[in-house]
Every structure is written in C-alpha cells, then in structure tokens.
Specification:
- The protein is α/β, with parallel strands linked by helices.
- About 35% of the residues lie in helices and about 20% in strands.
- The strands form 2 sheets. Strands 1, 2, 3, 4, 5, 14, 15 and 16 form an 8-stranded mixed β-sheet that branches. The chain has an 8-stranded parallel β-sheet with strand order 6-7-8-9-10-11-12-13.
- Helix 4 packs across helix 5 and helix 8 packs parallel to helix 9.
- It binds 3-[(4S)-2,5-dioxoimidazolidin-4-yl]propanoic acid and fe (iii) ion (FE).
- 3-[(4S)-2,5-dioxoimidazolidin-4-yl]propanoic acid (DI6) binds next to helix 3.
- Fe (iii) ion binds next to loops.
C-alpha cells in the first residue's frame, strides 16, 4: 500500500450518479486504486495525505480536442465579427486550410512547443486524460507528425494522451475536385501508417467536410485496420452521420446539434457515446440545440469536451464546458460531471482504466477546494483545483 488520501469527500462517479462517499478515503498501490470508501474502513498506508475535507473526483477527461496545431485564427474571428461566415471563410481557402498551412510548416518539436501552454491550461483544471486529433496535416507525413507530437505531449507532462487520426478533416488543396481520391489516400495510406501511433480514427462528416459515403469508407477501412472509430456528425446539418457512426460500432459521435431520434436510437443500440461540444456551439453562435432529451430518453451516454481548436472552439477550459453544458444544453450537474469523467472515458474506450474512482482503475484524481460538486458546474471562469493525481503521483 503506498499512499492513502483520507479525510476527503468523494464523488466517485461509480453507479448511476455522482457516487458520493462522505468522510471517505482512497488508497493506491503502484499507481492503481485499491480502495475507495469510508475512512473508517480504509487500509493503512506508508504515506497518508490528509485532504482536510476537500472533494475528490476522478481526474477529468477531455475526450475531443484538436490541441496540436500551429498558429491561431484570431484574424478570421475578427472577420467573422465583421459579418463574414465560417463557411465563407472556409470556402475561400481560410479556416481549416489556413491552420493546415501553418501546421505543415511547423516541425514536430514546434507543434509540441506550441501545444504545451494549451495542455498546461487543461492540466491546471484537473485533466488527467486527453484525446488529441490530427487533421491539420492532410498529407501522410504531416498527419503522422501531428500524431507523434500528440504522443510526445504525453511523455513531457503527467497526462494520458489518446491520439486520433483525423486525416479526413478537410480536403487539402492538392485534391480539390478529387475528394474520392483523397479518401482513398486516407484509407490506403494514412490509416495503415497510423497503426501504432493512433488509438482511433475520426472523420468530419459535413457539407464542408466529407459525405456520409466517404466517411463510411474511412470508418470501414479503420475498423478493418483494427482501430476504434468515431465521427464528427450533425454539427451544421443533418446528414445521418450519427447513425452511420453507430452502424460502424463507433465509440462516439460528436457535436450532434442536428441529430434526430433515429440517430439517438441507433447510438443507444450500438453503445455509441454522444460527445457534446458546447464551446463550438457557443463560439459559432449556433441556435440549433443538440437533442438532449432524445439522448436521455434513449439512454445514450452523454460526454462533454472542449473541442479545443483554432477555428470553432478556441478554449482550453473543460470547467467552462461544464458550465456551458449546463447553461446552454441544460445538462444537470450530475450529467455534466459524468460527462467529463465516466462517459468521457467510455468515449475513448478507456472505461476499464479511468473515469471513476473504483478499485483496479488507474489512480487519477482531481482534488478540489469546493463545498459541493455543483460548484464545478456553477462557477464561470473560476478554477478551484487544489491538486491533481496521475497514476498515484501527486502533480
Ligand atoms: N469540427 C470542428 O468544429 C472543427 N473541426 C471539425 O471537424 C473545426 C476545426 C477548425 O475550424 O480548425
Ligand atoms: Fe472537433
């Protein structure tokens, strides 16, 4: 038994709610949780940490980010404020493509360097696991460079990184008018080359991205190569992407503002998590709300994430997403907090490893200076983190 956190209030997220244990304790050995329960029954340990009645949740999980990219698009935001739409900017060669040029021009080390402040901001809020997508290289060597940079981030900081290949994010200029040929490149070259570098494969199924047919080819090739899959679906229009993702056994379908009841039913049956991204909804000034009631009715697990990216969600605050999930999407406190822990873990296929405070999982914790878990959802722009624990190490 190497470490015991005692005199704490636990929100373990085990079961169907917050899994609260008052006057609790958590023990860990060799980085794994071995006990979470009443302080009175806790085992002895070599080192005991008195938490002075603080709350402990699982380490937070940001299950959808584009954290690795070069440059930013503050100038485009300024144009949008003058009345130019995101789609107009994208069609004029800006948007994702301007980040693509900057990312192609950056070295792997430069990508790591520029992502670190964003990563550090997330870690400072108690994040212990993060998904990071490629998708700004849009040619084999640059997509692999992004995936390697994502993996390096997991070695220079105490954080679990799950890299995702998003080769089918946008059509690169070399392939204009030849989208099917680019999809072939993704399926035949990028996906095989990402084996061992990425944990999953994603695609942007959208009018300004790839059609459901093209996205389906990417998901099928990915499954065949042994990858988990997920999909950006129904963000700006209803194309049936969420049902498509479910039909490929996707871990998650993400965004979902325009998802339908058919989508919700298909996702529930396939066990596909709904990853809602209120930062993008807010920043894009969307008005079409994701169908949260339908997701609830059909029992689709709901996760929340930052979608941290330079175009549509330039945020590095998962705590702010808790507030936006509640204010904009009307999630309850329990739904919001489960959305960045247990359901986010499931969206990454990491349910056995992280997401709840239960024996046998990794000892990833966030310790908070709060009087009630609702405070994490209630406050806007506050950060009550006391400390973070990753694999049993205080950091
Ligand atoms: N959906 C998004 O919200 C981002 N990518 C995607 O597929 C936008 C990325 C960007 O504009 O750079
Ligand atoms: Fe995204």
């Amino acid at each position: 038994m190497d470490r015991l956190w005692t005199n704490a209030r636990l929100a373990t997220m085990a079961g169907d709610d917050l899994g609260v244990i008052e006057d609790g304790a958590i023990a860990c050995r060799d980085g794994r949780l071995v006990y979470a329960g009443p302080r009175a029954d806790a085992p002895k340990a070599a080192e005991t940490i008195d938490c002075s009645g603080r709350w402990i949740t699982p380490g937070l999980i940001d299950c959808h980010t584009h954290l690795v990219h070069a440059g930013n698009r503050a100038n485009e935001w300024a144009m949008r404020l003058e009345g130019v739409s995101y789609e107009e900017i994208a069609r004029a060669g800006g948007g994702i493509l301007s980040t693509m040029h900057a990312t192609r021009d950056a070295s792997e080390a430069e990508l790591v360097e520029s992502a670190l402040p964003r990563l550090d901001a997330l870690l400072a809020e108690g994040v212990t696991t993060i998904e990071i997508k490629s998708g700004y290289g849009l040619r084999v060597e640059d997509e692999l460079k992004m995936l390697r940079a994502a993996r390096v981030l997991g070695t220079v900081r105490d954080v679990r990184v799950s890299p995702t290949l998003l080769g089918a994010h946008a059509l690169p200029p070399e392939y204009v008018g030849r989208a099917d040929a680019y999809v072939d490149l993704v399926c035949e070259e990028m996906i095989p080359a990402a084996i061992g570098l990425a944990d999953a494969v994603d695609a942007f199924c959208e009018g300004i991205g790839f059609t459901p047919e093209q996205s389906g080819l990417v998901l099928a090739a990915a499954r065949e190569a042994g990858f988990a899959v997920k999909l950006h679906a129904e963000q700006l229009s209803a194309l049936g992407g969420a049902s498509l993702a479910a039909s490929h056994g996707a871990l998650s379908a993400d965004h979902l503002e325009h998802a339908t009841e058919t989508d919700a039913r298909a996702m529930a049956e396939a066990g596909t998590v709904a990853v809602l991204l209120p930062g993008a909804y807010y920043f894009m000034r969307e008005t079409h709300l994701p169908p949260v009631d339908l997701l609830r009715t059909h029992g689709v697990p709901i996760a929340l994430a930052t979608d941290c990216n330079p175009g549509t969600s330039p945020t590095t605050s998962l705590l702010l997403m808790l507030n936006m999930g509640a204010t904009l999407f009307r999630l309850t406190v329990t739904e919001a907090l489960r959305g960045v822990t247990v359901h986010a873990a499931r969206a990454l296929g990491l349910s056995q490893e992280v997401g709840t405070i239960e024996p046998d999982k990794a000892c990833d914790l966030a310790i908070w200076n709060i009087a009630d878990p609702a405070e994490l959802v209630y406050r806007i722009g506050a950060n009550p983190l006391h400390s973070r624990v990753k694999d049993g190490r205080c950091c």
